[in-house]
Amino acid sequence: MSSSKEKATEKYVARQFRKSFSLGIFFLVVTLILPILNRFAGGFMARKLFGEFSVTYVYSVLFIYIVAWVITIYYVLRTDREEEEH
Amino acid sequence: MQQPIATALVGLIVAISVTVAFLSRKFARSTSEFYVAGRGINAIQNALALSGDYMSAASFLGVAGLVWAYGFDGIWYAAGFFAGWLVLLLFLASPIRRFGAYTIADFVAGRFHSKRLRIAAMVGTLMVSLFYIVPQMVGAGELLGLLLGWEYVFAVVIAGTLITLYVVLGGMRATTYDQIIQCVLLWTAMFVVMTLALGKFNFSYSELLGTVSEYTQPGRWLDFKNSFALIFGLVLGTAGLPHILIRFYTNPSGRSARWTTVWTLFIIGTFYMMTPVVGLAARSLLGDTPTSNNLVLPLLAQFVGGEWMIGVVIAGAFAAILSTVAGLVIASTGAIAHDLFTMLVPGASDKRQVMMAKLTSVGVGIIAILTGLLFRGYNVAFLVGLAFAIAASTFFPVLMMGVWWKKTTEKGALAGMIVGMVGSAVMITTNLLNVHTLKNPSIITVPAAFIAIYLVSKIDGKTPHDTMEFMHKVHMPEKVHEAEPE
Predict the structure, then answer these.
(1) Which residue segment(s) compose the domain that B278 sits in?
(2) What number is the ipTM of this complex?
(3) Tens of pLDDT along B309-327?
(4) Which of B140, B226, B457, B472 is disulfide-compatible with B412, CB 3.0–4.6 A?
C-alpha cells in the first residue's frame, strides 16, 4: 500500500474512532450511572417524577431508550454524510 | 389435550415456519446461500430477522418473569439487552460487514492469519451458542408442558427436533424469512397482552405502578455490585454474539449494515419497553400464583384474555425460541462445518460443505436437546445473561482491538481471547457453585482481556504485514473501494 493511501486510511480510521468512542463512552456513562445513582442517591431516585413514576423507573424504561435512539440517528446520518463527502 | 384453541394456534405457527423453510429450500444450495442468504437481504428485512434472532425466550418469557419475581431488578435485563445494540452499531457493524466473511473465526483468522485463532474463535462460538440454546430449550419444554400437559423431557425432545429440522431443510434463507414472520408475531403478541393487561388498570400505567409500588424500586434481588456488573455485561455482550454478528454479513454494504441496526434498535426498543409493564401487571394481577417465573407471561395472558390469548402468547414464545435457536444453530454450524471442516479438508467441494453443515446442524440440535434437559428450572433470562458474559469477555475485546488498533498482534489477540473465555467460564462456574457472589463476571474479565491484548501485543510487536490493507478494507466507505482498481 502506498504511504499516501496509508496515511489517508489512518486519518479516516482515527476520525471514525474519535466519533464512535466519544458517543460510546457517553452512552456507557448514561447506562452505568443508573446503578450508581440508585446506590448513592437512592432518596432522589425514588422520588416520584409524575403520577406513580419514580425518577429511577422513568430513567430505566424511557430515558435510556430515548438517548440511545437519538445517538443512533445522529451517528448514522453523520456517518452517511461523511462517506458521501469522502 | 388441555387447551385445544391454544394448541391449534401454536400448531399453525409451527406449520407456517416449516412451510416457509420448505419453500425456500431451493435457495439453500450453495454454501454462501446456506450461511448468509447470498447477501441479498435489505435493511428492514434484515432488521426484522435480526430482532427475531435476538429476541429469544429470554426476552419474551424471561424478562417478564424476572420483573414479576424481583420487580425493578428484572428491568435491568430489558435495558441491557437493548443498550448493547448501540455499542455494536458504533464500533463493529459496518467494519464487520465490509470485511465480508461467514463467521467470527473467519474474521479473526483473516485479520491475523492464524489457525490457532480460528480454533479459539470456533470454541468460543460454540460455548456462547450452547449457553444461549440451553435456556431456549428450557423455555420450550416448560411451554409445551403448560400447553399440553406433556412431560418436560418429551416436550424438549419434540421442540428440539422440530427446530433442527427446519434449519437443515432451509439454511439461513429459510431462517431469515421465518425470523421475519416470527419477529412480527412475537412483537404483536407482547403488544396485545400488554394492552389487555393495562385494560385491567383503566389503561393507566401509573395506576398499575401504584398497585405494586414496592416492586418499582431496585434492590429486591441484586445489590449494587451485581446490578452494575450485570448491566456492564449485557451492554458489551451483544457486540460479541456470534449469531448476531454473522447476520451483518447478510447486508449488501456497510451503509446498509448501519441502517439495519437503526431499524433493529426501534423494533427491539419498543419491545423491551413493554416487558416491564407485563411483568408488573402479572405481579399485581396474579400475585404469587405462578409456579415458574418462565411461565408468568402465558399465565398473565390467560388471566386477561382466556384461552385465545394464552395461545397467542405461547405461539409468540415459540416464534421467539424457534427463530433464536435457528440463528444459533447456524452460527455453531458455521463454526464446525465451515471453520473446522475447510481447515481439515482444504478444497472440499461446495456440495460436501453444505452436506457437512447439515450434518453438523443435526449434531448441534441433539446436543442442544440434551443440555436443555439438564438445565430444567432455571430462569431463562438469567441463563442468557451468562451467554452474554462469555460473549462480552471472549469476543468483544478481540474484535474491538482488531478492528480499531493497528498494533494488535496475533499473540495479543490469542491471549485476550483465552483470558476472556477461560476467565468468564471459570467465574460463572464458581459462582454457580457459591464460591463467590459475583453473578456476572464481565466487569472483571472484559477489562482483563483488553489488558491482555494490549500488553501481549506491546511485548510481541509483530503486527501482521497487511494490517493497513485490512484497516483500509473494513473502514473505508464502499465508494472508495469501488473507485480503486483491484
Answers:
(1) 4-382
(2) 0.94
(3) 999 899 888 878 877 887 8
(4) B457
